[in-house]
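Might I ask for a little of your time on a matter of protein folding? Here, with my thanks, is the record as I have it:
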Amino acid sequence: MAGSALSEKKEMAGVDKEKMSGMVKIVFVSLLLDLLAFTMILPLLPSLLDYYGNTDQSGLYTSMLSSCTAFRELLGIPDTEKYNSVLFGGIIGSLFSFLQFIICPVCGAASDYYGRRPLMIISMIGIVASYILWALSHNFTIFVLARIVGGLSKSNVSLSTTIVTDVSSTKTRGKGMALVGIAFSIGFIVGPLIGAFFASRGVGEGTAFYVKPALLALILATADLLFIIAFMKETLPEGKRANSFSNSLTDVQDLINPISLFNFAAVKEVRQKSMLRQVGLSYFFYLFIFSGLEFTLTFLVHRRFNYTSMQQGRMFFFMGSVMAIVQGGYVRRIQPGKEKKVALMGIIVLIPAFIIIGYATTPFVCYLGLTLFSFASATVVPCLTTLVSTFGKDDQKGTVLGIFRSLGALARAFGPIIASSVYWSLGATTCYIFGGVSLLLPVVILQRAVSVKSD
């Protein structure tokens, strides 16, 4: 009798493991398709901005260019075509991140009531629409509209991490989050290469050069949408959902007010909420510093080593490759309960990485710093995401992870602006040393969160 019960328990565990493995693979494929389409535009931005600068008649391009020029002159940034493109692209990127900051908590809360699958489908429909607009963007206003629609639809990443949380246990969740990280690494390696191919083709005759990559992105996004409809099952049963959307939403202000988001105010009756707040705060400061200095890397290697766009592409390819190796070979094997320790190690490793990059006078030394930089990038966010996913009940996971993702988007919206200001005001070496020392703040906060847990 006891043997039969034990056998049945093992059989059920096997079914659960198979379910988890299958759904995580579906999430992996979906994210990979999405990120290949999303990253394709990155190397195209300079050419796109040149194109709209020469052809746009809407007036929006001129207005944004004036703001970018004023910011450049305020900081004393050299008036070169490359730097202007980087700054202009940074403004568009900050807008995209800010829109994610707004939408992720709302979408996460909605998924706690309506389920994950419907919200994923709605998100992908919006992403498909954004690529349609991009393909039709004969002027800069339509292009910006495409980015706005894309930013407001980009909740599929936080929903994907929520789905991994739904189908995994505490012991297996780290492996699932590592696969999400691997999808990011592969996407950010291959997608820009595809975009760079189109960028190298230049502006063709008859058809604008951006149409083909936009249509390819549209095909990938449409394939992703159809893949989700066909294979992605609902992972939050009706019996485990929030009682009503109003209860899940609580108060709209809790999901859009930054102070409420940092306090995770929309998450009610959760154990060790003070620790959740501290992990969220540590994540924000880490990503604020990380994203800011990551943005200035383009300036640094161009000024110090005269790197061309192709050489910078190889640099980011190297970083993405290191991240994929670390996530596939190390992060997915981290034992449950060790995530905080590894996240702390990743942030601490980033301190000498920034100092090495700041003082680097040769590409070889810079690449040593970039190797440590890539290790941190591969470990910190997946481990913190796994840690945060342990908080809240089943009908709160979407809200918790949506708020967490939102804090990261807010950091990415403002980090590059502040880092650029420090970089051009005080110099590259001072900027990177200051950034490295500043990382002690998220280390202290996260260490304190560990202490709270142990009490």
About this structure: The longest helix spans residues 2-39. Residues 32 and 183 are 5 Å apart (CA to CA).
